[in-house]
Amino acid sequence: MRYDLLVVGAGCAGCMAASTASKLGLKVLLLDRKDEASIGEKVCGDALGSHHLDSLGLALPRECYHSTSPGVEIHSPDLKSSFVIEDESLRAISLDRRAFGQFLLRQAISAGAELVDRFHVSSPIFEGGAVAGVRGIGKDGARAYGARVVAECSGTASVVRRGIPDAEISRPFPKEDVMACYREVRRTKGEALDRLQIYLDQEKTPGGYAWIFPLGEGMVNAGLGIRASEGASPKEAFLEHVAPMEPLAGSTLVNGGGGLVPTSKPMDSMVYDGLMVAGDSASTVSPMHGGGIGSSMLSGKILAEVCAEALSAGSVERKGLWEYNKRYMAAYGAKQASLNVFRKFLQDSTNEEINFGMAHGIVKPSDVLLASKVGDLNLSITDKATRAFRGIGKLDFLVRLRRTARVMKAVKKLYLEYPDFEGFAGWVAKVRAVESSLKPPKKRRS
Ligand SMILES: Cc1cc2nc3c(=O)[nH]c(=O)nc-3n(C[C@H](O)[C@H](O)[C@H](O)COP(=O)(O)OP(=O)(O)OC[C@H]3O[C@@H](n4cnc5c(N)ncnc54)[C@H](O)[C@@H]3O)c2cc1C
Description:
Bound molecules: flavin-adenine dinucleotide
CATH topology of the largest domain: FAD/NAD(P)-binding domain
Number of helices: 13
């Protein structure tokens, strides 16, 4: 049996790819190493912005989430300033991750996708240089499955992508672009938090942040992420810095665990001959906050739509699948690329600079809201503010922030002009040139 589309990984990206492709009439096989009942279980912050569901047209059954809250509160490192980010279109949903994953899986199966669970994919198989299926080990031993197109949706495992003989597609993400996370679900004794809490601190959580998200009925999801290149243990950092925080006083552990999150821009190209990559494996997570559930589903949906078109045109080599890159970059990748520039700015800023910037309204809550919605940073910096910054010796921070906003705009424009297959190498060179115009400061942390 040769399938039209073989999806590796029944996570958010894979289930969405499988259900969309099946609805479009493709013969779809979905493989996952987990047993069917465990699909959806994942160490996660469990938070999803409601706008993702709206744009995907997904109505979430009540059993898929614990609670909703009006938004997020972001705290400065000295805890003296906080930004409340709220918007009717951006309500935060605290998911029951397993129930949500099972809901996505049921959507795929009821649309016609065939599931083989407890099948551990080990590598791609090739025909004439193009990906033509995968091999692995399942309940009945080793075997291979063939397909006209393979969708790599195995998350950070990236088990298919890593086996492609092309340096760009198989490249592991640099550790500077990956967050090492640890989180605990805890039952608290305190008052329920009314919104998601985010704590910035470049010394306790270098390159990342800590969070406490309400799950309802006194339960919280609390954790932190640290840039993986720091080599620090996120669990130790959690126990030292997050566990003693006031909202967790007297709380008891329900469960804990760690995981990796790629927090950068998408891969330059997410296709190879016979292969399309979506979700964490393609680095579709928002670099602003590390949320990847919504964008992984979006990438899976676009992948399936382009796959159906390419199959009916009879062209599943890189050029035939190229439209997937274009549509994803227009829908989300351009915003990600812009926010990736902002992420680097934040990571290069000291606690003192972040405290100062938040206290003096250099970036305001409305700016953060706009950035998270469309990826733009509009600065309200007046000449008066510039003079004040010069007076207190922080002009360098202001200059860097202005330059960051300019580069964000330029990068976003380039991504919105994502090239045809033929223009790819030239486009990559332009992106690199713009990005490298922003140099990190000599001194990184205070
Ligand atoms: C600690 C932590 C906190 C996070 N918090 C949030 C948050 O609050 N909000 C948010 O939006 N995002 C969050 N994320 C990110 C989010 O979880 C991911 O972006 C999202 O799950 C990506 O979906 P995916 O389908 O690409 O991958 P996954 O959900 O990881 O799915 C991959 C699937 O592939 C399967 N698989 C892997 N290897 C193989 C193999 N060899 N053979 C067969 N199957 C295989 C796995 O079993 C899994 O089912 C967090 C991540 C972590 C680690």
